[in-house]
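Hi V.,

Quick status before I head out on leave. The structure for the redesign project is tokenized and pasted below; the design run finished overnight.
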């Protein structure tokens, strides 16, 4: 009798992976689901039971929140990483940590394959599979959503209904939602029309601007070597700090992004992102860097930030270039310590104050009032030298 081959499937409990469990079983595989808790806020026990009800032989649930925030999200924050200047890469950052941990699970379970529920036109298939190939060369990968006969999400919903698979999507609310501590992505359905204003039901963690409080709220964030360590003077662990700022920012409608994104596979897509804590932290981190970094380092780091964002987006987390850029970024963060004060109001974040023991700002040089020590007589000679190459 032939041995039934084992598959460890990256499982979220959503439509694609729930249908994938049943589809793989029908193809003759034993399915072991791997579910990583990266702060998606879902009922993981409910999702675990759902996997077993569908037919999975086991569902492994692992808490990766601390690792995700400290080693991935905060690394991107220190680098100043925003894809196309807007997207904080929350989904992209979660894929390598999940894929890496999933390989460990597959090894323990003596699985024949690893699998994911990504589509053939998305970015996540690349992020999972590149990680698999770098960390475990020769690993065999299955990608049900790229291979099955279900051509649309509506057909997936019908398949789920036919097989008694409980899913949250309906034919009317067909959005694909991916959520973790660092951010939430919403796509599909009516959002596929770039002219269509995002409906109210696409708001997941952020209040609509019109429903945000009429009174502004001030928040203070403390950094140590580029890493946020306290909010309003109170120290928090990394997971708790992000959760705290998500609640505060979400209440004020902060962190909502509606963008046309250039996908790795070459197409454009319309994406909605929500990242309240991230928007607050990026604004604060930029402010403290402006205070403590010299001009040339900041200018060079801007280019590094853009390249870093592409590396993350393209699924190249475990590469030599990424490691080398981390070394540069960590060097720039040695003096990025201090406190930033921010004002949150109706979807906006405004920096209103900053201070640091390593500040390069000198009041006696900047002031136009009493105490000014700047020798303005030097300016004429400086200008003459600056203009010299351009004289005829």
């Amino acid at each position: 009798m032939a041995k039934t081959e084992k598959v460890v499937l990256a499982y979220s409990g959503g439509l694609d992976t729930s249908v994938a469990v049943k589809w793989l079983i029908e193809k003759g595989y034993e399915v072991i689901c791997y579910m990583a808790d990266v702060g998606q806020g879902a009922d993981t026990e409910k999702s675990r039971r759902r996997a077993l009800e569908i037919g999975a032989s086991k569902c492994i649930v692992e808490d990766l929140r601390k690792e995700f925030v400290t080693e991935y999200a905060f690394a991107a924050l220190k680098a100043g990483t925003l894809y196309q200047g807007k997207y904080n890469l929350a989904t992209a950052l979660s894929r390598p940590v999940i894929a890496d941990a999933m390989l460990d699970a597959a090894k323990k379970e003596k699985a024949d394959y690893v699998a994911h529920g990504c589509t053939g036109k998305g970015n996540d298939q690349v992020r999972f599979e590149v990680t698999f190939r770098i960390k475990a060369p020769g690993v065999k990968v299955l990608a049900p959503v790229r291979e099955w006969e279900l051509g649309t999400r509506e057909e997936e919903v019908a398949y789920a209904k036919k097989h008694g698979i409980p899913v949250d999507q309906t034919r009317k609310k067909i959005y694909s939602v991916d959520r973790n501590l660092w951010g939430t992505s919403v796509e599909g359905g009516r959002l596929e029309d770039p002219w269509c204003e995002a409906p109210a039901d696409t708001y997941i963690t952020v209040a609509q601007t019109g429903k945000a409080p009429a009174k502004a709220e001030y928040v203070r964030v403390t950094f140590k070597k580029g890493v946020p360590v306290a909010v309003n003077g109170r120290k928090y662990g990394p997971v708790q700090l992000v959760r705290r700022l998500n609640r505060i920012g979400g209440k004020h409608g902060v962190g909502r992004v509606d963008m046309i994104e250039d996908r790795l596979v070459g197409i454009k897509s319309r994406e909605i992102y929500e990242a309240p804590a991230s928007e607050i932290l990026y604004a604060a981190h930029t402010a403290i860097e402006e205070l403590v970094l010299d001009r040339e380092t900041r200018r060079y780091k801007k280019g590094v930030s853009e390249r870093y964002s592409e590396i993350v987006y393209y699924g190249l987390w475990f590469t030599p270039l990424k490691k080398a850029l981390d070394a540069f970024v960590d060097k720039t963060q040695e003096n990025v310590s201090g406190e930033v004060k921010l004002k949150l109001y109706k979807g906006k974040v405004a920096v209103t104050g900053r201070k640091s023991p390593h500040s390069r700002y000198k009041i006696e040089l900047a002031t136009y009032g009493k105490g000014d020590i700047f020798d303005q007589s030097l300016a004429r000679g400086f200008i003459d030298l600056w203009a010299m190459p351009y004289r005829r």
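Above is the designed sequence. The chain has a mean pLDDT of 94.

G. will cover questions while I'm gone.

Best,
W.
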